Every structure is written in structure tokens, then in C-alpha cells.
Amino acid sequence: MRVLAAMSGGVDSAVAAARAVEAGHEVVGVHLALSAKPGTLRTGARGCCTVEDAHDARRAADLLGIPFYVWDFAERFTEEVVEDFVAEYAAGRTPNPCLRCNERIKFEALLDKAIALGFDAVCTGHYARLSTVDGEIELRRSADDGKDQSYVLASLTTDQLRHAMFPLGDSTKTAVRAEAAERGLGVAEKPDSHDICFIPDGDTRKFLGDRLGEHAGLLVDDETGAVLGRHAGVHGFTVGQRKGLGIDAPAPDGRPRYVLALEPVSGTVRVGAADRLAVDRIVATRPVWPSGQPLGGAQGPVECVAQVRAHGGISPAVAELVDGEVVVQLREPLKGVAPGQAVALYRTDAAAGDLVLGSATITTTG
């Protein structure tokens, strides 16, 4: 097969590309330039897609003996990821930019271009597994639970997954680093990227404030209705937030307060005790089913596992489709679940690992 290897400059994508070469595929490496001003992305080990990362990716491609290119996706990234991120916060929702990047950039824009150029698949360093059963594609958790990235891939369509390769799905991170060292890849010990790549200093509130300006509102006790303070905009908060609320007076019981809900129209931020964060019901819209079958083809309610964050936020659940929306009843309440997040649904299969049933965007909780 002709394979386009997306090479971020990290150890995972380098080893994934190496395995694709070793498997006998015709591999071409590509690094995505996601900013017109690379200095606005994180530098060093804290981010991804920087100039340094492009150099690391090129060196890995040279070692593997494969052609290498840098493709400019900066405009598309700004529109699909950065502007979406800002708009979601302005609407009082909490987006996941990494999920959106995978969905809109790596497996839409990149994959579309790859197929147009005659490639059969895009290879990435994601930790997830793909299999085909009776002609149907299946997305499953990786063998390394601590690195599993199926949550941020659960919004991919059947067709996108048919053109995807995840060579690291059966490996652990420790094994991948050891393999990189054995292959002589200079990124073997390079730290993992983290945080949001397009916010250079990590100050999300300032980043949003610079773009959205000030929209004053009130901080309100959700239980009593008492006004506790003022703020410069709901975009500076997210459900579950504890620090930086700007409330001077402690709660009557001395317990810390958390953000419980955001009301962008009125500018109200509702806060309260931690136990009021717990929700056991989620309603989500715009579902995507990796296998092409809603809820794995089941009729009626389905016993499953729901996950609301990339790492953590997991509960046994019952899910069903109601008028096109996914209604999830959690067996164990979860805290800090916010509109805008994705809920991924899994079916537990002890023999083959957790199977991704689908993903949808959370609209309300209760």
C-alpha cells in the first residue's frame, strides 16, 4: 500500500512510520505546519507542530529513508480548530481541541488530500487498535490503557477509519521508546507533548479574553441565589473549575466552591459545593458511529461504558437513541461534565478489548 505517515516530530509517529516501512508499504512522511507564525506554538517539549518538531520529523524520515514533506495546513487549522475553540467557549461550552484536530485536520483535511494524491492510508502514532470483523471496521482501546487515545478518535467515521493505520495499538509507550532507541531515532527520549499547542504561554483565560474581550457578569451561588462577585466573561470558566473564581468570601461551611454551570446569554456563572457537580444523566447530539451502526447495531437501550475525558471520567452506563439524540444514564455519577465535551461509548469485550460504539457532543447534563 501507499501510506502517508503523519510525522509530528515525536517518538510515537516516528516509530509508527518505521513500522509501516518495515511492513513493506511505500511510505511518505509529512509534517503538518499548523501556524503561519510557528513562534505562536509551544516550543521545546511542551507542545507539538513547532519548527523544532518539523526538524525532528525530517531527521527521522531521513533515517528511515523515506521522502518527507511539510504541508501548510495553517489556515485550515485556524478555521477548524482555533476559531471553533474560541466560539465554543464564548457559547459557554468546553471544547476538546485535540479531538477536533484529529477529526477535522488529520482525518479530514489530511486524509482527503492523501486520497486525492493516490495514497491508500494515513498512518499516525495514536494508541488505538483497528480490526475488521465480517467486513465491518472496529475501533478499540489500545493495549496500553495509560496511553489509550481511542477517546479522541471516536468521532471518526467508518470511511475515515478504513483509510487509517495505527501501528502502535498493541504496544506500550515503554516498548515504543525502547524500539526508537534501537532504531537510532533521535526522538527516543523526547518528552510527550501536552497542553494546547496554539496557546503559547498556557494561559487559556488570557488567550480567550484577547479574542472575545470583556463581557461582565455575575458569580452566583447556585443554591441560595446570592451574588458572590463579578467576572469579565463566562469564557474564563469551565464546569468543574475550582481555582481562579475571584470569590473573596469563603462559603458558610468553609468548603471550596466549584463552577456548576455557565449561562452565556445572561453572563451568569453558577458556583457551589463539589457534591453538586455530580451528574448521572447526559444528553448528547451529533453522534458518530465508527462501525456505521448506531450503538453497534443494537436495538433499544445498551449496556456500555461512557467516557467524558481523554483520560478518566469513566462510568458504566446505559445508552439509547431518543429522537436522534444519545441519552446516557450513568451507573456511577461523574463530576465536571460540561456541555461541549464529547462522550464516547464503549462495549466491554474481555477477549478483544473495549470496542468503541460511538461518540457524541454533550449538550445537557442532569
From TrEMBL:
<keyword id="KW-0067">ATP-binding</keyword>
<protein>
    <recommendedName>
        <fullName>tRNA-specific 2-thiouridylase MnmA</fullName>
        <ecNumber>2.8.1.13</ecNumber>
    </recommendedName>
</protein>
<keyword id="KW-0819">tRNA processing</keyword>
<dbReference type="GO" id="GO:0005524">
    <property type="term" value="F:ATP binding"/>
</dbReference>
<feature type="active site" description="Nucleophile">
    <location>
        <position position="101"/>
    </location>
</feature>
<keyword id="KW-0963">Cytoplasm</keyword>
<dbReference type="GO" id="GO:0005737">
    <property type="term" value="C:cytoplasm"/>
</dbReference>
<feature type="active site" description="Cysteine persulfide intermediate">
    <location>
        <position position="197"/>
    </location>
</feature>
<dbReference type="InterPro" id="IPR023382">
    <property type="entry name" value="MnmA-like_central_sf"/>
</dbReference>
<keyword id="KW-0694">RNA-binding</keyword>
<feature type="site" description="Interaction with tRNA">
    <location>
        <position position="126"/>
    </location>
</feature>
<keyword id="KW-1015">Disulfide bond</keyword>
<feature type="site" description="Interaction with tRNA">
    <location>
        <position position="341"/>
    </location>
</feature>
<dbReference type="GO" id="GO:0103016">
    <property type="term" value="F:tRNA-uridine 2-sulfurtransferase activity"/>
</dbReference>
<feature type="binding site">
    <location>
        <position position="32"/>
    </location>
    <ligand>
        <name>ATP</name>
    </ligand>
</feature>
<dbReference type="InterPro" id="IPR004506">
    <property type="entry name" value="MnmA-like"/>
</dbReference>
<feature type="domain" description="tRNA-specific 2-thiouridylase MnmA-like C-terminal">
    <location>
        <begin position="280"/>
        <end position="362"/>
    </location>
</feature>
<feature type="binding site">
    <location>
        <position position="125"/>
    </location>
    <ligand>
        <name>ATP</name>
    </ligand>
</feature>
<dbReference type="GO" id="GO:0002143">
    <property type="term" value="P:tRNA wobble position uridine thiolation"/>
</dbReference>
<comment type="function">
    <text>Catalyzes the 2-thiolation of uridine at the wobble position (U34) of tRNA, leading to the formation of s(2)U34.</text>
</comment>
<dbReference type="InterPro" id="IPR046884">
    <property type="entry name" value="MnmA-like_central"/>
</dbReference>
<dbReference type="Pfam" id="PF20258">
    <property type="entry name" value="tRNA_Me_trans_C"/>
</dbReference>
<comment type="similarity">
    <text>Belongs to the MnmA/TRMU family.</text>
</comment>
<keyword id="KW-0820">tRNA-binding</keyword>
<feature type="binding site">
    <location>
        <begin position="6"/>
        <end position="13"/>
    </location>
    <ligand>
        <name>ATP</name>
    </ligand>
</feature>
<dbReference type="InterPro" id="IPR046885">
    <property type="entry name" value="MnmA-like_C"/>
</dbReference>
<keyword id="KW-0808">Transferase</keyword>
<feature type="domain" description="tRNA-specific 2-thiouridylase MnmA-like central">
    <location>
        <begin position="206"/>
        <end position="272"/>
    </location>
</feature>
<dbReference type="GO" id="GO:0000049">
    <property type="term" value="F:tRNA binding"/>
</dbReference>
<dbReference type="Pfam" id="PF20259">
    <property type="entry name" value="tRNA_Me_trans_M"/>
</dbReference>
<dbReference type="InterPro" id="IPR014729">
    <property type="entry name" value="Rossmann-like_a/b/a_fold"/>
</dbReference>
<keyword id="KW-0547">Nucleotide-binding</keyword>
<dbReference type="Pfam" id="PF03054">
    <property type="entry name" value="tRNA_Me_trans"/>
</dbReference>
<feature type="region of interest" description="Interaction with tRNA">
    <location>
        <begin position="147"/>
        <end position="149"/>
    </location>
</feature>
